[in-house]
Amino acid sequence: MSPWHYALTQCYALVLYLRLSFWPYPLVLDYGNLLVRHPADVALQILLVLTLARGTAVASIRRPALGFLGAWFFVILAPSSSVLPLVTQTVAEHRMYLPLAAVVLAVVLALDRALSRWSLPVFGVLAVAAVVGTLRRNATTGTEVVLWRTSLAACPTSARAHSNLGRALYDRGELAEAVGHYETALRIAPEFADSHYNLGLALDRLGRTSEALAQFAAAAELRPSFADAQLEWGRLLAQANRWEEAAAHDAQALRSNPGSALAHDRLGVALVELGHPEDACEHYSRALQIDPSYAEAEGNWAARCSG
User: Fold this and answer.
1) What is the pTM of this model?
2) In angstroms, rounded to a whole number, what is the distance separating the alpha carbons of residues 40 and 101?
3) pLDDT 10s digits, 230-263
4) How far apart are CA 73 and CA 96, in angstroms?
5) When you count CB atoms within 10 A of the terminal residue's CB, does the N or C end of the chain come out lower?
6) Helices 159-171, 193-205: inter-axial angle, 10-degree rounding
7) What is the dihedral sign for C-alpha 78, 80, 81, 84?
8) pLDDT tens per residue, range 124-146
9) CB 226 within 8 A of CB 220
10) Domains of the chain, with CATH numbers?
11) Taking all residues of the chain, what is their mean pLDDT, rounded to a whole number?
12) How far apart are CA 211 and CA 208, in angstroms?
């Protein structure tokens, strides 16, 4: 992602933030990795942003109070919404929280000056409308499933939103629909390791073990430090009695997360099967040091090491 393409995207984003300041619909929790590549696609937005920036510069000299509000908007947004690529989220409405105060203040002062004695009732109506709008918006965040469905309705190209909706559905036991959203997430972003891992969990619960194994493998290969993916990959290999391979993945998980009692216990089990009980006992003991209440590790230690 080049600074140039990111800057073009931010021209789109800045105008979007301003529009949502006046008409906050639809609000989107996750825009994914939206990226504008051609100036022609955002020509009007570029023109508007440059006009506002020039107006802020002129006002800072001629009308400093007004210029301060413009600078407030641009300066706070500059770290996230200029040329430094933030690759996890190219557009994010929460970046507007503090700059929004400048926009609101400018509108309030302008209306107060224009409406004079009528400004108070107008502000009262706007306040009531804002409360109603807030209550309606809050209704869309009541559950994770509703939250992510609402976000996807407005922006269906967000791989992260599809993956998060899939996880919420998985937690409710709606596995088939969860798989569909994970697969959509991976069509949009095949390099998204979390989606591979989550899809693997759902496929495993559906009894599609070989497909689950492939997904855990993909997640771990994309991100070798992904300890949970390594452990799930190792678990399925252990179920197939492929103990040497399972031990290798358990050891990799342990290197990524040395404080994992589960990884120590899983590696211990694999080492026993490979004929290394003394090494296994060390891992069982370490698992119990990390989590003294870990019953499975305690049982394994008692069965293999207490004598």
Assistant:
1) 0.81
2) 31
3) 999 999 999 999 999 999 999 999 999 999 999 9
4) 9
5) C
6) 30
7) positive
8) 999 999 999 999 888 888 789 99
9) yes
10) 3-113 (no CATH), 140-220 (1.25.40.10), 224-307 (1.25.40.10)
11) 93
12) 6
Of 13, 81, 5, the C-alpha closest to 39 is 5
66 exposed, middle or buried (CB, 10 Å; 0-12, 13-18, 19+)?
middle
Question: Is-contact 267 283, C-beta < 8 A?
Answer: yes
The SS3 call for residue 2 is coil
pLDDT score recorded for residue 196: 97
Of 148, 123, 130, 103, which Cα lies nearest the Cα of 25?
A: 130
Contacts of 57 (CB under 8 A, 6+ apart): 67
Separation between Cα atoms, residue 2 and residue 83, nearest integer Å? 8
Distance between CA atoms of residues 140 and 138, nearest Å:
5
Residue 212 predicted with pLDDT over 70: yes
Contacts of 88 (CB under 8 A, 6+ apart): none
Q: Single out the residue of 215, 112, 303, 205 nearest to residue 223, CA to CA.
A: 215
Residue 156 to residues 12, 30, 76, 265, Cα–Cα distance (Å): 18, 10, 29, 41
pLDDT digits (tens, 9 = 90+) for 25-83: 888 889 988 899 999 999 999 999 999 999 999 999 999 999 999 999 999 999 999 99
- Say whether pLDDT at 307 is over 70: no
